[in-house]
Amino acid sequence: MPFVRNCWYVALWSEDLHSGAIENRIILSEPVVFYRDQQGQPVALFDICPHRFAPLSKGRLLPGGGIACGYHGLEFGADGTCIRNPHGDRIPNRAQVKRYPLVEQDSLIWIWMGDQTPDPALIPRYDFLDPVNGYTVTSRETLTMPCDYRLIVDNLLDLSHINFLHDGILGHADAPRADISVTTGDRWVEVTRISRNLPVPALFAMLLNDGSERGDLWNTIRWDLAGCLKNDALVCPVGADRNDGDGIFGAHLLTPVTEETTLYHIAAARQKTARAGSETSEEVRQRLGELRRFAFEMQDQPMIAAQAEIMRKYPEATHHPVFLEIDTGPAQAQAIIKRHIAAENSPA
Ligand code: FES
Ligand SMILES: [Fe+2]
């Protein structure tokens, strides 16, 4: 399996788990049921009833914060233990389901799929998404991508593609050269690209709204094991300091469903909500969301889907990719993923 288990993944946007509702997801090829208990805290349990394997997500919530199987009525507490067998007095030992650790933070519900003790400090922060911080945030979207999550990590850590695939919207095909720097840690990679003196791409022109025709594009993308990416993209006047720019923070949160499908959670926030003369209207918020959705859904998704299909069909022809200057960041991330998978699967 190409999955790192001992790390945090986004299970759901907080706003997608309503009180009294039951949601289900496949995460790392495991079915998981989600709901909120009486205090509103999110709960995640293995979504297979140990009796006859009905999905608990087809059951009903109990007043005490548990869930009852919809087939023969076994009742489970929020910790996954069976608390009632309506057919007799005995509760069999094996009548229990796994409970997954969750943390709700920055308008996201994070899940830990591994066996090691979860460390909430490892969850990367996306504080620009938290409503209390006052940023103008686009709608929170969830796209289904027909590919291995690692192809999307490659896509995002090599932002040179914005100049070609997103020509005019996020970058410019006649300005592909950039100063690139890459820094790494045990569980993260950060790539910064600076493209000098290029025509201001449409998304940034809309935010700047000052008629600037050319600018410097600063783009930093940070990846945290295994599917968390945060983008800080801004344009500033040619030759100016980065702090003089304006742009967006982007959240790109990948949750592997299977080896061939990935849930892609995206949202962006306006960086300088109160910049003098900047536009922060609802119209701009919506337009920003639409432009980004267009870029990811109409440009990235078909390209990555086509790439994934070719790699599936022609494994030998695609075994050994050509390496360019732009590939250092993605290669570092893939090496970290490989190392963690190997460590998790090596005998203790
Ligand atoms: S399948 Fe759940 S109680 Fe029978
Ligand atoms: Fe892209």
TrEMBL record:
Name the UniProt record assigns to this protein: Vanillate monooxygenase
Organism: Rhizorhabdus wittichii (strain DSM 6014 / CCUG 31198 / JCM 15750 / NBRC 105917 / EY 4224 / RW1)
Top EC class for this record: oxidoreductase
Keywords: 2Fe-2S, Iron, Iron-sulfur, Metal-binding, Monooxygenase, Oxidoreductase
Source superkingdom: Bacteria
GO molecular function annotations of the record: 2 iron, 2 sulfur cluster binding; metal ion binding; vanillate monooxygenase activity
Positions of the Rieske domain: 8-111
Keyword Metal-binding attributed: yes
Signal peptide annotation: none
One Pfam family here: VanA_C
Alphabetized InterPro entries for the sequence: Cholesterol_7-desaturase, Rieske_2Fe-2S, Rieske_2Fe-2S_sf, VanA_C_cat
PROSITE patterns: RIESKE (PS51296)
EC code(s) of this entry: 1.14.13.82
SUPFAM superfamilies named among the record's database cross-references: Bet v1-like (SSF55961), ISP domain (SSF50022)
GO terms under cellular component: cytoplasm
